[in-house]
Amino acid sequence: MKGINLKKIGAIVAGATILASSVAFAGGLMYQNTELVNENGEPLAKVILGAGSQAVDGVVSAAISNRMANEAYKSATLTAEVVGEATCSGSAEACGTCDIVEGSETVTLEITVPGAGVEGVHEFVTAIGDYVDRGLENRYTVIGDSDEGYTVYDDFEDSDANPFQNVLGFEMTFSDFDPTDVEQVAMYDIGAGNFGPFHEATISDSKSGKEYKEQQDVWIHGNNHWDEGDTEVYGEVDFMAYSALFDSTGDYGIPVCPGDETSAYDGLGDFVCGDLDTLPAHRVYVSFMGEDWVISELENFWNSGCGTGQSTDQEVFEVDGAIVHLAKEAVSGIINVGEIMESPSGYKVRLDDISREVGMANSHPAIITVLDANDNEICQDQVYPGQTKDDLCDEATGVKLHVYQTAPGLNFIAKWAEMAIYKDEIELESGDDFLDDSDTDWEVAIGWTTKGDDLCGYDNPEYLRNIILWTDEEEDEMEAGDVFPVVDLADYEVYDLTYNGIDDENTDWDDLKFKVQTPSSTKKWDIDDGTCEVWTDDAYLEVTTNMEFKVEYFSTTNVGTVRGDKAWYLDVSNSPSIWTDCPNTPGDMWMIFEDDDGDYFLYDDIDSGINMGSMLPMKYKHAGSSAVVGFYAPWAATTGYMEGGVAHPAGKWDDPDSNIGDDISDALTFMVYCDGLGDCELGAPDYVGAGSPQLGDDDQISYVVLEESADGVTDDGATCYVATTGVGPTVPFNVLGYKSAQPANWQCTAEGPLLDSQYDEGFISMRGTKFQSGSDNEYKFKVPGSVLKTTWTFSTVAAADATADTSTFTLHEGETAAVGTTGVSVHVLSIDQQLTPCSAGTGAGEAPACTPDMSTVSAVVMPNNAPSVETIVPYSLTSNLVYLDTDNVALDTGVIITVGGDKVNTVTKDAIAGSDVDFEATPVVVKQIGNKIVVAGLTGPDTAAAGEQFLSELTN
């Protein structure tokens, strides 16, 4: 398996947890009176996992280490400082005082939030031959079943709905999304509940004093399927979408005119929101694809007049061609006339003036000068409020300047402009490709809502509801390690979905072998401790396992249960040289079973007790409680044939509407033909018609999906279900790679199945059994001890660097700025200043100057009205949280949490030695013994229950 190393999970989850919070708390985690993580965020405990543990022990260990990592943080202090000082020069011949222009004072703050950019990981599991949809591991998808798909609801406040919903029962207007397509309804949702970086984000509009919530999700539909030609279980992704839903608590979204929300449109449907009241002018950050972006511009989202034709309040709809611009700021702030803003490229922008009214809109553009790194003037230009220009003065400066708003300095008030230099800006057009003119398979859908307050009713958007990126360009042959990116442009690829293939890393495999043996001399078996004897000179079939068989049915002289790893099948009716002196052994087929003590037992097709013709089965617990290995000779008219192999549970089907149970059984079969001359040969069953079997290719098997009965096989006349549509099960297994049989209802008759599906060597069943090889004298299978699954990993592309997110703001007194979508905001409560006497020049042409004393100038960070604010800092994990019991780690000091029972974990074994722990009496154990806390169970589910109990008892 290609998956996640448990030893790294602690550090990854710690970072993801820190990112999700902006409020400062002290760490600390306790179990009863034992400290697991101290108040400084330092983990004091180790988790020990047995090297021979089951997968469930690893899951419990990961959950415990995740909880410890989640508490690995401590508080820290962010301090705001005043940057720069006021100075001036001139003659010192006379003294005077200097006045400060009212409203011109600004403060520059640099705010650093630790933990931004931390990698997140979510892993999920599918059965072999299973869909990636809402209900995993059940192998079926029904479009209208809410257990399988996120259907389009009629509840406007339901955030747990299909990302394309318009809540009227249809998809959003103008969307290419078709809710009748199963891959776009039955999806798997990755969101805040299972992926740390998708924590609910806070959207702050400091200018209007409002806050909104944002919910991010990734939606996936796909499957994994067997490919016979390549002998591979491939992963397939049919559909994927990323959605950012604004105001996920159920309101309409973010207003397009937040400064005057109720007056966005006039009575004729025209957008009349003032320049300073629009959403772009309010400099609102949203979280998009893992980073903070500011909404820099909205285009084509409304029609003059009553044009879009919406008919109902609280409808989510698209406007074809509507554009949302998102930008990343390199530097931003409020700049007074004469001040400079420097770009990362080294070029500078100086605000020279604010223009008087220009054009029909009476806008006041900012008049700027571009300077090079040596302060040489390059050119002049003007930029209007709401405008972004990346071609200032038509020069290649690399400066992308945006002006949010300007103050023209009327009535002797200071002139200033709120500006930003962007390091990136993207244009998202609804109904078009992600980033126009790019080579991408991802498309954009933008959802809007309206309350319909204008006289046109519900015709124009009043709120931005969601932004969606989606693709239905499928990838149908994903091998283990292959990645499906979100999105497919390298500069914007933030998240990856990785198909890891079959998870068989810790699987116990059995080599199940069927072999025709031709004795060179007479082969003899002493039955019942010498009571009788069977001997032959002809060929016979030998069945062996590395694990164990169990036989419960014997001849009339032997009743009971025996266990062993070997058995022989003899076709009596077609072997001229088989003899026995044992009484009561009629029938055409015998089985001789060898138990663990080397004793032999004989039973035949009459005394087997199984109602399926001449069936001779053995219990095969390694492959499940109802798994069997056996043979039967169902064709009375055609002697010489035995059909059999292995039948075992394939895992959940779990379709409540079908007439099949919760479980299905894999039947992997082949045939034995003895020619009546003492020769036997193996091959796949090849049916020409009912009752007319033939010996097919010897490197093939028959694979049948059966309804599982108590004995792992079906009775005479029972319906054998394979993957069909309409009647019975609803999984089209021919789509998933397993051949379908027709008609829909297969009949399992005494003559055998009516139809058959053949598979070559390399085949992997839905349970995970591998058909390794087949020849005319030997068949080999690799059988897993548990039902195998495939795993998928959704993660961020970046490694978990826990790098800090730094924002720079230049603000006036009384202003507030949001630090991205972290929920942290900075408020300049006051700027205090005191002027000292300064020298004024008296000579000809000299100007007065002053040097103010800035010692009393300060800035404070809200809401504490203090020069500092508390935040959280992740504890730097320098060692693993999870170890194997075979690792050389100190176990005599510190707290040891040992997971798994004494059969698989030597640390548990040592810890409970001499204690009263008895797993047979108490299957679920959570107990502290000395410096060790035992979290274990008698079985895997018991250990999972112990883990849940332990986690529930942890306190802060």
What does the model show?
The chain is mainly β and 956 residues long. It has four helices and 61 strands. Strands 8, 9, 10, 11, 12, 13, 24, 25 and 26 form a nine-stranded antiparallel β-sheet that branches. α1 (6-19) runs parallel beside α2. Mean pLDDT is 79; it is low at 1-26, 90-94, 608-613, 710-730, 741-755, 799-803 and 839-844.
Number of strand elements: 61
Please give the share of residues in helix. under 10%
Question: Main beta sheet: strand number and arrangement?
Answer: 9 strands, antiparallel
N-to-C span: 36 Å
**Count, helices:** 4
Strand content: 35-45%
What class do helices, strands and sheet pairing give? mainly beta
Using the alpha-carbon principal axes, give the shape. Answer: elongated
pLDDT below 50 for ≥5 consecutive residues: which ranges? 1-26, 90-94, 608-613, 710-730, 741-755, 799-803, 839-844
Mean pLDDT metric: 79
Rounded radius of gyration (Å): 37 Å
Q: What structural keywords apply?
A:
4 helices, disordered N terminus, mainly beta, nine-stranded antiparallel sheet, 956 residues, elongated, single chain, seven-stranded antiparallel sheet
